Amino acid sequence: MLTANHVKQYRLMAGFSQKELASKTGIPRQTLSLIEKGTYNPSLKLCLNLCYVLNQTLDTVFWVEPS
Question: What is the DSSP secondary-structure string of 1-66?
Fold first, then answer.
């Protein structure tokens, strides 16, 4: 199951480009792009790193309602 998320929304609100956010979290920009598209499942550690840089909580950025 792929992870739906709000990474792009919060990245734009924070004023980061994909390149900037990727650099701050230590991942390639292409990986960040795939995460934003929902075609790559990041590890919990990477999810947390993204949240820390975006100054958001895990449930805010990655919460998905049960189906």
Answer: ------HHHHHHHHT--HHHHHHHHTS-HHHHHHHHHT-S---HHHHHHHHHHHT--HHHHH----
